[in-house]
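hey so i finally got around to running both of the ones u sent me last week. sorry it took forever, my laptop kept dying halfway thru and i had to restart like 3 times lol. anyway pasting them below in the order u listed, first the sequence line then the structure token line for each. didnt double check formatting much so if smth looks off just lmk and ill redo it

first one:
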Amino acid sequence: MSKHTDSVHEVLLEKKGCAGIITMNRPKALNALNLPMIQQIYPQLKTWEADPETFLILIKGTGGKAFCAGGDIRAITDAGKAGGRLAQDFFREEYILNNAIGTCQKPYVALIDGITMGGGVGLSVHGHFRVATEKTLFAMPETAIGLFPDVGGGYFLPRLSGRIGYYLALTGFRLKGRDVQKAGIATHFVESEKLPALERDLTALKSPSKENVAELLNSYHVKCKIDQEKQFILDEHMEKINSMFSASSMEEIMQNLKKDGGPFALKQLETISKMSPTSLKMTFRQLQEGASMDLQDVLTMEYRLSQACMRGHDFYEGVRAVLIDKDQAPKWKPATLEEVTDEVLDSCFKSLGSNDLKL
């Protein structure tokens, strides 16, 4: 396969040694994921998974700044406003790809060097191995744009230790470098400059098993000394996160934060108060329900939620305020948590009948 890096090729697919390598190649857009990229990655992933000569699959981004900064939100916004098919197709095909990664029979290694948010998390977190570096910047910032932490967030977030997942989902808090691994999002931590050598060593393995891949990754991980002694950034707040975010409703979390009144709690209160109330309630319930679902059921639920967001107001308003006009002053409707009724919420989670996601 050609190693062509022409800008027309938004995704590069090549076989190297024992590995199939997927390279996202939109560096100017921070490797944001669009539908044509998904439509190239999915069939190739399935082909490599079935190919007896391919022993592992590796995914990475070009440009040195980002693994993948998320889905191509602008295109989805335009389509959603115009009632275009993309607002359905993008989420449907993206979630089908997330599931293919989560069920992949071959070792799947994501080199999450640089910005890894939203859709980029979906391309990595469900795979066997996620290698973070000192340049990794992770976040699920969707509640700020009237969306929810999708791409299987309802599966992996509630399974993180304590209530970290709820905290990351509701506040959009950014984790950097080694903290991404300490939080359990990455499995390994390696210096960014060592990634080319790691990739060479991975592709040179002879008919490797998952254990052989793990062994090689571990050998790089233990040699990496960057920030080795550094305490996990959320360590000092874990007790508070676990108690304040252990609640039976979004309103209760807000009450807990107000009641605590300390600097950490007030900072979270301020952050959460800027988010879409509908998104917050949707996200809270998504994680609550997702905690006991398998990945397929989570993605089916999330597809319903994505379409509710496409039908609603807050997603378009959030994108306007954050990405288009950049005034950072969204006018959410409804404007308060109390106004987001159970009835409104139930309708977001309701089956789409024949339009439901089929995995």
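and the second one:
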Amino acid sequence: METDRESMSGGGRRTHTKFSFGVVRLVLSVGVLACVYQSVQPPPPKMFTAVTSPRIKLRDGRHLAYKELGAPREEAKFKMIYIHGFDSCMHDSFFFHNLSPALLEELKICIVSFDRPGYGESDPDPNRTPRSIAFDIEELADGLGLGPKFSVIGFSMGGQIIWSCLHYIPHRLGGAAMVAPVVNYWWRNLPAKLSKEALSLMLPRDQWMLRVAHYAPWLTFWWNTQRWFSIASYISCDPNILSFQDKEIFSRLGYNDLNQAYARKQGEYESLHRDLMIGYGHWEFDPLDVQNPFKNSNGSVHLWHGDEDMFVPVSLQRFIISKLPWVRYHELTGSGHFFPSLMVDEIVKTLFVGED
């Protein structure tokens, strides 16, 4: 009997021990999953109280901050909306700082620059898509009374947005210029081999950043804030992604990141990370299917690109242009990504008066 009791007691202890280990493993697993879940969850937008720029209110209640330059809207002959690039804001427009006052006065141009959703003082749009930004721009134009037609110029990721304007609001455009526009490597009409070769030209850490943004957008915040791997050069402003000409431009003109704090004031997720998820995500349309909005020659579309651009391989633009011959292509030998700072007048004159 004693032996039986001891045996039963030992078996009970073993069962209790197994049960305890199982509970511990379960608790640890839940804890790890909770930590993982928390680490991949983006923070809410940072709140700011002081608004330093004029803003218009959109139909859904959001606000877009903007600034103007040049002729008064009611007197302007040409009205243009500038769309800024990645990690930037309305204050960073080459077309504000480098356009000659004489040309501005001669052509009577009114330029509107605005903070894209989530940047600067424009409210974030948690439902932002390539489609929504085009209609935001249309609402901005209507809110400012720019009239039935206006032109758009976009730089880098802002240049990519021009495709959305051409697709969704072509009837509102008087002209369009894409300057060093970003290309989504996963647009369905781009040959897989070409996209793969172009992506391989990027630094490995940047390749991974773009793949995460495309294939696992829910990991974008974690990927760009973790400390296990090197942060993407796009976000760290690594000079290794600058061409020779770009480095000269930065050295000569003394560019700095004075506006970076303003651009990121609502947090990097709503500005930089969401930009990556939209720009390199799954699009509702393919730009290579876009139709010419100016078949009656009542406007024109231009694409400017440097053949030494290390942000956007020129091979992608060459293929796109080969399929869309109605886009007027200007390839600049020896130029990098920031060449527009050197030729703002030429870009504007070409768009508005046809001088190339």
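quick thing i noticed on the 2nd:
The two ends are 105 Å apart (CA to CA).
anyway thats it, ttyl
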